[in-house]
Each structure stands twice: as C-alpha cells, then as structure tokens.
Amino acid sequence: MSIAELTPIEAKARIVAQECDVTGNRWEVLSDFYKLPHDVAGLRIVDICAGESDLTAVLTDLGADAVAVDMGYVDPNLLHQRKIRTFKSGLIRSGLDPESVARIQPAEFERDTQRFMRSFVRNPERYISASALALPFEEGRFDHVLSFFGIVGVFEEDMQMLRKAMNEAIRVTKPGGQIQIGPAADGTQTHQGRINTGRLVTELMARGDRLAVSTEFFEFRGLGSQRITMVKK
Ligand SMILES: C[S@@+](CC[C@H](N)C(=O)[O-])C[C@H]1O[C@@H](n2cnc3c(N)ncnc32)[C@H](O)[C@@H]1O
Question: Which of 51, 114, 119, 205 minimizes the number of CB atoms within 10 Å of its CB?
C-alpha cells in the first residue's frame, strides 16, 4: 500500500516508525522492569515495538509462547543499521567525540544482539512485522502484553497514536491478563518530544470498568520513571 492510500494516522505512524530510535534492550534490564510470573511456561506473551530486544528469545527458551511485533522486522538488516545509528548518536549526545564513536567496530554491537539475531533466524514466525496500531491478533489472545520504549517511547508525542496503540494492546489482552508499559516519565523533554504519560494514565484510569491501572516507580538510567500496569477486567 502506498503512503498516499493510508489514513493520516497510519501515514504518520509509518513516518514515525522510519525515524524513531531503534534499540535492543536486553533481558537483564527488562526482567527487572516487568513483573512476570516465575514460571512463564505456556503463557502467551507479546512484546510490542520489540526492536532488537532479546526478550522474546529468552521467554521462548523459558517455555512461553512469546512473539515480538515491530514494523522494522520487514527488513532486519536495516533495523540493525538503525540500532547502530541510535546507539552512536546516543554516545555523541552524552559527550563522546564523533571520531572515536565512528571507529567503534560493528562487532561491538553484534555481541549485544546475538541472542536476538539467533532467535530471529531460528523462529522467524515469532518476529512479526506489523504496526502496533493494527495488531494482527484476535481479541483476548495474550496473558501478558509488554512494551518497553514502545507504546510510551514511540507514540507519546501524539495522543491519537498513543490512544490507538493502547486500544490495540487492551484488545489483544485476555480478561484477567496484564499489560505493562514504560518507562514513562511524565513531562520529561526527551530528544523525541514531551512525554504525555500523565494524560495517558488519567485517560486509562477513567476506563475503570475495563481496566485496573496502577503505576510504580522504576529507576531507568538515572531517569525517575514509571511502570504502568493494567489488568484487563
Ligand atoms: C526504541 S525501540 C524499542 C525496542 C525495544 N522495546 C527495546 O526495549 O529495546 C522502538 C521500536 O519501535 C518500532 N516501531 C516504531 N513504530 C512502530 C509501529 N507503528 N509499530 C510497530 N513497531 C514500531 C521501531 O521499529 C523500533 O524498533
């Protein structure tokens, strides 16, 4: 489908997806963030806007029926190049000189994402190229719906996209299932824009008939941020 045939929100989402940061946060970080049962065997879990994270790889090894969704999976090589770019520009922003950053060898980045890459090749059916705004799953499919630097991180500047992504996450969660998203730092000015988390949480709490919403503090890279947890009623 050409960009001219898309609805304005879908067209904007395509552009955001092409321009946003790409990361690959590792299980060691994410298992600290998410509150998951000790035994995940048999649970259906989806990671939305998963990038090069190895979360799905590890959950699959632990016996979960885990899948990852990212628009970038249409071209994993391009996704990897964008991840390297994101990492390098982060180093430059944090004060490293661009020449030293340019000399960093690609192997340095591959070491970090080996688990993701092996799993992607071994289980391609678990890495689904789709939009978070139109998830290709039936209603109530998942026990756990997870998104780190995805639903909040990619869409937070635009309430319309944020709402659409949230509605999709809620739709694919089964009654009694959990949605966990973050890290969310309300009002923080990131290089991608101002985070609308407070507004999102207020809107979610107003849906008390469908969701039990709670927020907890989570310290991520020196940012005071939050984990938003929702249980679908
Ligand atoms: C900052 S990365 C986060 C990756 C991962 N969750 C992590 O913690 O490292 C954001 C990811 O969202 C993906 N993305 C952006 N817009 C999307 C959309 N509309 N649907 C699905 N994925 C999208 C990008 O391709 C990118 O890989």
Answer: 114
For 60, residues 6+ apart whose C-beta sits below 8 A from its C-beta are: 66, 119, 123, 126
Asked if the 3-77+121-232 domain carries CATH number 1.20.120.430, the reply is no
Q: In the chain, where are the structural domains located?
A: 3-77+121-232
Q: Is the dihedral of CA 197, 56, 73, 165 positive or negative?
A: negative
Give residue ranges with CB within 6 A of ligand 1.
13, 16-17, 20-25, 49-51, 53, 69-72, 131-133, 148-150, 153-154
Strand ranges for 27-172 from DSSP E: 44-48, 65-69, 127-128, 142-148
- Strand residues in 39-148 grouped as ranges (E): 44-48, 65-69, 127-128, 142-148
Paired strand residues for 79? none
* Ligand 1 geometric centre to CA of 49 (Å): 3
pLDDT of residue 191: 46
The answer to whether the predicted template modeling score (pTM) of the entire model surpasses 0.90 is yes
Identify which of 45, 49, 155 to mutate to test ligand 1's pocket (most ligand atoms within 8 A of the CB).
Answer: 49
Instruction: State the amino acid at position 149 in one-letter form.
Output: F
> Over the chain (233 residues), what is each successive 10-residue block's mean pLDDT?
78 91 94 96 98 97 98 95 92 90 81 91 97 97 97 86 94 98 68 63 87 87 81 96
